[in-house]
Amino acid sequence: MPIIKITDLNLSNKRVLIRSDLNVPIQNKKIISYARINASLPTIKLALKNNAKVIVASHLGRPKEGFYDSELSLFPIFKYFQEIFKKYKVYFCKNYLNGIETKSGELTILENVRFNKGEKNNNKHLSKTYANLCDIFVMDAFGSLHRNESSTYGLSKYSKIACSGLLLESELTALKKIIKKPIRPMITIVGGAKVSTKFNLLKSLAKISDTLIVGGGIANTFIAIDNNVGKSLYEPNFIHQAKLLRDNYNIFIPIDSKVSTTFNENSIGITKKVSDIDMNEEIMDFGENTITKMLPILQQAKTILWNGPIGVFEFKNFRKGTTALAQTIANSNAFSVAGGGDTLSVIEILNITSKISYISTGGGSFLKFLEQEEFPIIKLLERFI
Ligand code: AMP
Hints:
The protein folds into 2 domains: 6-166, Rossmann fold; 182-371, Rossmann fold (3-Layer(aba) Sandwich). Helices cover 35% and strands 18% of the residues. The chain contains 14 helices and 17 strands. Keywords: ATP-binding, Cytoplasm, Glycolysis, Kinase, Nucleotide-binding, Transferase. It comes from Buchnera aphidicola subsp. Melaphis rhois.
């Protein structure tokens, strides 16, 4: 079923609340990747140009609900918006739950919605409080589409009218096209640290892919089926599921790893076979033999889907695997699709944006979309048509 688009509505003088996904990596209050913010700008621009009273809401990181955490404030993002929208008045609002003053053609950025108690478990009262802030709700946070929280699901449910923003619309259109008939072989890579969220999606991804390459904490969980993984990030509760997947699908699992006894920027690390990892060691990246074995698989792919770095990319000594992966995808003739916050940072840092066929702002939502599940938020948006 179709949904109402922002371009279908008259926005002038209306209070328009846009839920964007501005969850970008920030270190020492500095934005590391602008990709998600920049992808959100067209919808905000459109609302401002149409003389709406524009309010933008987003989450950032995982703060403890009900508490303010200056490290996870949206203030640095507000400062960036001030630079971008020089022609407009841009405000930052910390306390907005009792209502806010807004004027046509002006922009207000709300503080991190995850500081509000009830946001994550979709509290009805909080959702209604948000809904009272606006006349029109615009869902544009593709990256948050798989999470039913108050500022996404709740707002879609309780707003007088809700529609899709430009980003959500273009993501849905592009991804639908991609998964319809992939050219084979199709290789999917899933890495990163959100092991439990991603694990449940692996079966569907393994089913639709010719090979599923696992990295990061997910790979560590596969390694842990038969080996000791020391202090590594992994999910013991998923080992059984990992074994079932390994025994039934074509899963590429690392054979060696770069390990370290300390988790920090200056750790050097050594390469070890996955069977030789000690209790005080932690897997930080793929080892050289694993990288060598992975590259030909990627080189013969015709479709590549990628989500999540395969090692601790932020530390210079542990980015070899992710860099080799990213560069091979960039040099490949395959149709390549990449998604996820950290994946976007890798692509930005390596300056290969133009070499990836389609870049999605979604991480979990991108994977969930590939699983071809219906999103409850989309179901809610459909009822307005
Ligand atoms: P995600 O948001 O799930 O894509 O996770 C991205 C994060 O995964 C990045 O911050 C990486 O540093 C982290 N990561 C990747 N591999 C590992 C690993 N072996 N151990 C710990 N963290 C990892």
